[in-house]
Structure formats: structure tokens, C-alpha cells
Amino acid sequence: VRPYWRQFAFGVLFMVMLALTEPAIPYLLKPLLDGTFVERDAEFLFWSPILLMVLFLVRGACGMASQVAFAWVSGKLVLDLRELMFERILNLPTSYYDAHATGIVINKVTNNVTQVTAAATKVLMVLVRDSVIVVGLLAYMLYLDWRLSLTVFVLFPMLAIAVRLIAKRLRSLSRRLQATMGEMTHVLGEAVRGHKVIKVFGGREAEMRRFSSHANWVRRLQFKVKLADGSSSPLIEGIAAIMIALLIYIGTGQLGDEPMSVGAFVSFLAALGLLFPPIKRLVGVNQPLQSGLAGAESVFAMIDEPPESDEGRQVMGGVKGRLTFSKVSFRYKSSAGDVLDGISFVVPPGTTTALVGPSGSGKTTIASLVPRFYTVTGGTILLDDQDIQGVTLNSLRQQISYVGQESVLFNDTVAANICYGSEGDIPHQAMEDAARAAYALDFINDLPDGFDTVVGEDGVILSGGQRQRISIARALLKDAPVLILDEATSALDTESERYVQSALQNLARDRTTLVIAHRLSTIVHADQILVMNEGRVVERGTHAELVALGGQYATLYENQFEQA
Q1: How far apart (Å, rounded) are the C-alpha atoms in residues 368 and 346?
Q2: N or C: which end of the chain has fewer CB within 10 A?
Q3: Cβ neighbours of residue 124 under 8 Å, at least 6 residues apart?
Q4: Tell me: the pLDDT tens digits for 273-286?
Q5: How crowded is the C-beta side of 234, counted as CA atoms within 13 Å?
Q6: 267 phi and psi, to 5 degrees?
Q7: How many CA atoms are closer than 13 Å to the CA of 112, on its beta-carbon side?
Q8: Coil, helix or strand for 454?
Q9: What is the arithmetic mean of pLDDT over 365-385?
Q10: pTM to 2 decimals?
């Protein structure tokens, strides 16, 4: 809230002014009743209605001013927290996404933030305003009859103990509710992304059961929150009834004391009546306060997550592209053993090295270590004889282009996707040249708006091969000296693969290229092929050398050739 302290102070000022007018209502009632109905004071008869009218006009203006100020601050808080969280999301290490479901992350940004801001503004508004009202009314009641007031106040400690117990219950329920809401969002996201698989494989009933289970837990927890929150109301009503009963007995002299005047009695009764709505509101903020505190734990836990390690100080530039792995080992946090075990190889500048082997052999892990999606647990990776751990992440990744099996396109135009990440205005001719080299220009020109066509979520209006060629055009436009191809053609049909393979040959020309290959036919011209198994390089050489060797690569190639 600190950056907006002026607006916040403005809201607090008018809120306090509104609160201070509350005790003025019973204060005016005593002289109003005694001066009009008892003493028949003509002057007071004239001015008292006007004073009441002015009082309520002031209350209305103060209430509106404070609400506007707090609504503005609340909106800014939501924006600031969401920007902070999104910035952290963009900087979180890949390992964080491996361990956290997408729906839970999204729920923190969309749902938990609003609970935090409710605690920071709405709850605070009630706490300040109604605390002032309660203090003012109590002070007036003590001024009016301090002995009667002390008799009534004996019941307040019971209320405080009950509120504390309810608060603990609400905090616990709010934590569980937020976690369950995140799980429900995750199931919903999976159903939206996987709707085709669900339809084809008849998974509707199973998904419905999953969603209903989580949604029902959300309902149950929300009901428990309301039940715990609502339990405070009958408690306050009961204490109010006892206090009013005591007031009637004492104020009317039934316990042997001197009875109060009509004006004093009604004024005290009005003050007591006005006292309970703010007490109710103060107790009522327990639920949003505890939800906000539970949400704050979740929101600030994400904001406080350590970002990607970027301890490098040197800025890399003018890279030729010599890539060296020296006794590199790596272990995922969730793994019992090393995924890579003492890997060593060299990729000379401008050459292509292919990685082949069974699933789980460590091929993709090697590709992830070069742009430092993960940090090596042993050994070193050098780019132009410079340890990549010693350079800044930004300058390292500027030297690398990446094309994966699943081409990532954003819900924007073709031009925006090709130019993604490029600084400054990119000439249209440069885009066309990149698209032409990626064998994408013809189908782009056939689109309704050409380069200005919006491709939809994940490039839904394009075929798999077209999406892949857009990704290749993006990599061509970046023109980085190091290229990583992670099974870039494995999911394509034969015709699309031919286009994409031709585009990849254009892309790999004069670049240091690391290829993870599933189809061995696509890497027969590689300068070097590394055969991996269980985190080790078991064979290396050219295609002809490895086939002649008659080892694991030759077996893989023969099996694929027979299948073809």
C-alpha cells in the first residue's frame, strides 16, 4: 500500500470523519427528546431537524469519498501484485514448472491476489472506520453513565475469546479452500487442453467425476467457511440481548437505582443499538481477513520464489559457436540417480552433432543444459572456451535458437510470431526472407490476411507442419550462432517433414547445431552422431562409420529401415 499512501490517507481521513459522526446521532437524541418533547424549546425545535439533515449529508459525502479512494487503491494493488507475480513467473527456473501444476499457478494470480487486496483495503477500511465508531460510542456511553456502561462491558471478553477461536478455524479452512480451488482449476485446464483425447477415448465420465470431486470439495469448504463466519452473528445477538435487558432493568430503576431521564435513556439505548452493527462488521471481517492472510501466504510465497540462477557477470558476444561438454553430469531434484554421467564431446563451429538413443537416455537433458534451463551438477559446458555458468543468462540465450517437437505459437499474427523477441521494428522484407527460407511464404500468402492473420491459440488455424515452419522462420530471423533442434520433425507426416527438413537444412547452414533425432533418416548427413544410453555416450562417429561398426546405432537404423 505504501506507494499509494496519499490516496490511502485520503480514504482513511474521510472514513474517520464518517466514523466520528456516528456518536453524534445518539448525542443529538438526548437534547432533541428532552428539549422538544419535554421542555418544548422553540429554538431547538427549529434547528434540530436541520442539524440531523446536515449530519446525514456529511456522512453520505464522507462515505462515498472513502469508498472511491479505497476502490482506486484496491485496483492498483491487484495490478501491482499480478505484475509482480507474472514477472516472477517469467523468471522462475524450469524446475519450478516441473513441480507445480499450471492450474495452481494460474489460480494464485487470478484468485488469491483478490483475497489479499480485500484484506489490504476492504478489511482495513472496516477495521479503521468501525474501530473509531466503537471507541466513540463507548466514550459517549461512559460519559452518559459510566456505572451502567461498565456493567454492560463485562460481557465483551466473552466476545473476544469467541472471535479468536473463529479466526483460527477460518484461517485453516481458507488455506484448504485455496489449495482445492487451484486443483479444480488444474483439472479444468487439462480438460480444455485435452478435449480431443477426452472425446476420442471416452474420458468424459472420468473427467466429470474428477471435476465434480474437486468442485464438491470447494463447495463443502466454502460452506464450512460461511458456517464458521456465520456463527459469530448469533453470539453477538445474544450478548446484545443481555446488554439491552440489563439497560432496561437499570435505566428504568427496577433494581433500586434512580431512573434515567427519557432523553438519557433513549440516547444510551440508541448508542448501545448503534454499537452492535460496527461490532458485527468488525467480527464479520474475520472471514475475508483470514482468507486474505491465507492468500497472502500463497501469493508472497510465489513472489519470494528464487528466480533462475544468474550469477554470471561476463557478457557473451561475437560467438563463433564451438560447444564443449567436459565430464558433464546432471541429476533432477526428483531423481534418485544421475540422468547424465560424465558426458564429454565437442561440437566444432558450423557443424551438426546429432544425439540419438532410446527414451530416457538423456538427449533432451543435454539440449536443456546448453541454454541453462537447468544447471549442471558436475563438469562444465563451454561455448567458445567460455564456461556458460560465468556469463549472463540473457547474453547466453541471445546466442541460441531453439526449435522443438511442439512448436509454440502465441495467439497473435503470423508476423508477430515470426518476430517474437526481436528488438525494434523488423523490415517486412526480412520477415519474408525468413519465411521463404523456412518454406512458409507460400502458405502464409494464402492465409486470409497474410502476415497479419491471427493464428489463434497454439496456432490452431495452422497444420502441424505449418506451425513448425513458422517456428523455423522465427529461428532464422533471430540468426543465432547456436541452434538446438529437439525432435523437430518427429510428429509430422511425410510431406510436411520434407518441407520442414528442407527448411531445417537452410536453418542449420553455417551454424553450430545440436540435433535430437527420433527419425534417423533426418540425421544421416550430420557431421557427428552421438549414441546415448542410460546417460552415457556409448558410440560416436558419422552415419557411415556407425553403420559399419554394427553396434547399437546400426541396430536402430536397420529397425527403422525395415519399418519404413
Answers
A1: 17
A2: C
A3: none
A4: 777 778 777 777 77
A5: 4
A6: -65, -45
A7: 31
A8: strand
A9: 90
A10: 0.70
